[in-house]
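Please check this one:

***
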Amino acid sequence: MATSNELVRNKIEELWEEEKLFLKTLGSFSSTLGNEKGVQQFVYNYLQDMGLETEAITVDPDRLRKYENFGEPEWSYEDRPVVVGEWKNNGPKKGKSLILQSHMDVVSAEPEDQWETPPYSPVIKDGKMYGRGILDMKGGFAAIVMAVKALRESGVELGADLQIQSVIEEECTGNGALTLLDQGYTADGALIPEPTQSRLITSQVGVIWLRVKVKGAGAHVERAESAQNAIMKANKLMESLMEYREHINNRPKHPDFEHHPHPLNVSVGLIEGGNWASSVPTECTFEARVGFYPGTAPEDVKKEVEQWLLEAAEEDEWLKEAKPEVTFYGFSAPGYTISKEEELMEEMSASHYAVTGKQVEDLAFTATTDLRAFGEFNIPATCYGPSGGDMHAPNEYIELESLKEVAHTIADFVLRWCGEK
């Protein structure tokens, strides 16, 4: 008689065409910030059709402000739900409960003319699927959904509760993940299938976002010598942030990142200024992202960055008087670490070996994920997901064989962690 593992492995292979179609459908939604409703409705219906007890919840910032991981939004949460589907254990608990979580928000596909194929019409070519969000991280969501579907269709009865969570704003605040945890959707462990190239995250940096507004003194270009160009003044402060980047990377490194040549990244991602080519701009605003090590409080980093910018402003005769306005929004994310000795990590390592025949590699991640929200709730969690390339860039893709392998590994892990009745 076939074991549960054998039945589930066969079922995942049977579901492979459906998994690819499911991922293509997810990728057809342009679920950028504020536009997640369509894909979340699709997810809700799909999980409900699988027989899961499904709920959609609206993010309420006022409920979340008490948490360390809260990120200040500048937008509405109307028609932008988070979704959870529960597979409840009806008998005595024999294993540990589990959350499988993914985010449905994606970054912009602009400039779309740099894509070889339309970003929201996923295509398969040479064993890869291309499209915005296909790798980061709708592919991982397809893997967890098909792993759970295979378990259910194989007749497996788990020994503990399992949840599939589909959240928003992993790319900017983390408030989606925080909402479900705040609403009581917790568990004994959590797995997020971010695209880690089948490695286990043991550590990740913290991240803050900031906005800097610089004022100038405008004029027609005929009198430009008597004006103060806000864009050029802002450039001085952007250059100072690049100096700050080198400053923090020259400090002693966190032990988890000692092997990394440049673990802390500072990036200016947006700039706006001016309104006419023949006018000296009177205002310029830029926004930036700053990384920092686990164990450092986001508020301490904010104070340091603001002081750094104000000191840079003191070196300019204009900025010394017209001081830049520094504000923080979006990410206020602490770092996260998990011991390799945690049972969750050991079981995931065992599942990876069972499926691939190889020892799993660890990853100290130089960006952030929703893992940190689980850390605040003392839920052991890690990321493990498929391979691909060009995340946050044109021609993003996922390697399909990697996706299937991850689905197998996740199914194996669910059986180990949750057990069977």
About this structure: The mean pLDDT is 96.
